[in-house]
Amino acid sequence: MTTGAYVRVPDRWRHAAAFVDGSMRDVSDSAAVISPATGQAVGSVALADTTVADAAVAAAARAFPAWRDMPRAERAGLVLAAVDAAEAVADEIAATVSLEVGKILPEAQGDIRGALAMVRAMVQLLADLESDEDRTGRAGTGDATLVRLRHVPVGPVAVIGPWNTPIFLAFNGIAPALAAGATLIVKPAVEAPLGLTATLRIIAEQLPPGVVNIVPGRGSVVGQRLAEHPGVRAVSFTGGTDTGRRIAAAGAATIKKIALELGGNDPAIVLGSAEITDSLITELVAGSYAMTGQICFNVKRIYVHRDRYDEFVRKFTDAVSRIVVGDPFDPTAHIGPLATKDGYENALRLITAARDAGAQVRELGLRADSADWHRGYFIAPTVVTDIPADHELVLDEQFAPIIPIIPFDTDDQAVAEANRTEFGLASSVWSQDLDHAEQVARRIEAGNTFINAHRLGASVPHVPFGGVKQSGLGRTHLLYSLEHVTDEHAIVGFDDPAAQLPGITRWQNITEPRITKEKA
Questions:
Q1: What is the Cα–Cα distance from 109 to 167, expressed in whole angstroms?
Q2: Predicted TM-score of the model (pTM)
Q3: 154-169 tens-digit pLDDT
Q4: Region for residue 457 given its phi and psi (left: phi exceeds 0; alpha: psi -120 to 50; beta: otherwise)
Q5: Pseudo-torsion of CA 222, 223, 224, 227, nearest 10°?
Q6: What's the distance, CA 47 to chain centroid?
C-alpha cells in the first residue's frame, strides 16, 4: 500500500521560496514543513522579513497599471493559459498538499482543482459582464446626458492564506483579483506553504513580472506588514478570529478594504419533525468529520430534539464507529491526521476536559494499518454526549473530529443555543418538513443556513458565503468576490448643466459684466 512514507514532494517544490517581480528572492531564514502523518520534514519554507514584503508590494504597484489597462480578452487569455499550466501538474500538487496538510488525497485533489476551476469561472463571469454599465436615462439619474458605472480593480491586493485548505481558500481572494486586473502579494501559511507556492509559481511565471508575488513568512511579520502597508489597497484573510482582529486594526490606518473569513462554530439542529434516516446520518457524519473536522464550516455541534435524541445518538455513533482513520494516501481512509501539532494537542486537551466535566466520551473509528499513531497527529473520531451546554467544547470552535450532541425540548431553545456564541459562519436545520425547517432556519444568526445538508458544496456558487458577528467581514463567490477587489467609478456628464441641474441661478451674476458708476 502506498502511504505518505513513500511519497515525496517533488524537488523543485520542496522549498517554498519568496518570488518577487518575476524572480526568486533570497531569504536567509527558513523553517521545516512537517508532515502531520509522520512527524517528519517534507520540505522547508522561507521566513521572509518586512523588506521582502515591501519589495513585493512595490513590484505589484509597478505592474498594476499595465495589467489593469490590458484589454480584458488579452488578460483573460494569459490567466487561462497560466491555469492550464498549473492544471497539467495538478496531481503532483495534490500529493504535495496531502503530505503537508495530512488531508486524504481526494480532498487534496479538490483543493487544487477547485481553485483552478474558480479562476476559470471568474474569467468567464467577467467575459459575460459589460465592462461599463450605461445608466443614462434610468430613474434616479435626473437629466444627466451621460451616466456610466465602471468597476475598476483596486490595485495591489494582499492574500493571507490558511493552512487547512491552503490552495482553494487562498484562491477565494486570488481568483477574482487576477480576473479583474488587480495585482497580488500572497502570503502562504508557514504550516502548509508548499502546494500553494508551487501553484502560484507556475501561474506567476506565465504572467508579466509583478502581477503575482509570493512572500512566505510568519503572520506576525509578513502578514502584519501587508495589512498595514499603505500600498496595499485590499486584504483577504482566512483564519482565526484573533488574527482577523489584528489584521482589521492594522488595515484601518490606511482605510483599505478588508475581507475576513474567520472561525465558525457551526450548529446543526435536528428537529422533532425529522426522521432519523440513513441519509440524514450519512450527511451529518460527513459534514462533521470531513477533513478531520478542519473545515471552517464543518458541523461543530449538534442539537437534537429530545424525542429523536436516543435514536439519533445510537445511529450516529454506529456510523462514526465505521470511519476509517488512515494515512492520507490510503484509499480506504475517510480521514487523515490533524494538520498541526497545536491542533492535535488542543484536541487531546478538549477530550480530557470533557471527561473531567462528566461527559460521556466515545473515541470511535477504525485504525488503518497505514496510520502511524505514534508519530502522526491522529485523533479518533469522537462523539461526546451528556456534556454541559456551556462547556468549552460546545461554545468554542474545536477544529477537530470531536462532536458534542446536545438534546433540546423546543425550537425556541434550539435557536437560542445555536445563537449563543459570537460565531456565525454557517449552520443547518434538518427535517423532511421543509416548511418547518425554513421557519427555524430564518431565526439563526449565520451567513449561511443549509437545510438537510452541511458540507462542501452546500454553499452554491451563486449565493454569497461569509460570516456574521465575529465570523468575518465580506462575502465570497463570483460577483460577491469581485466586489472586494474592485471599486465603483461613476462617470456623470452634462452638456448644459445650467438647464439640467438646479441651484445655479444665484451664482450667475458673478460672470455678468461689471457696471461702474461715473463720478458726478
A1: 10
A2: 0.95
A3: 999 999 999 999 999 9
A4: left
A5: 120
A6: 23
Question: What angle, rounded to 10 degrees, do the helices at 105-128 and 168-180 form?
Answer: 20
Helices (H), 38-167: 50-69, 72-87, 90-101, 105-128
Contact 286, 335 (CB under 8 A): no
321, 368 Cβ separation under 8 angstroms: no
Q: How many CB atoms lie within 10 A of CB 513?
A: 5
CB 310: neighbour CB atoms within 10 A? Answer: 12
Selected catalytic residue, list 107, 228, 261, 445: 261
**What's the rounded mean pLDDT across residues 224-247?**
97
488 is catalytic: no
- Grid cell at residue 76: 483573460
pLDDT at residue 3 tops 70: no
Long-range contacts, stretch 243-247, CB < 8 angstroms, 24+ apart: 243/219, 244/472, 247/160, 247/223
Let me know if 100 is a catalytic residue. no
Which three cell numbers mark 342? 497545536
Of 228, 283, 296, 397, which one is the catalytic site residue? Answer: 296
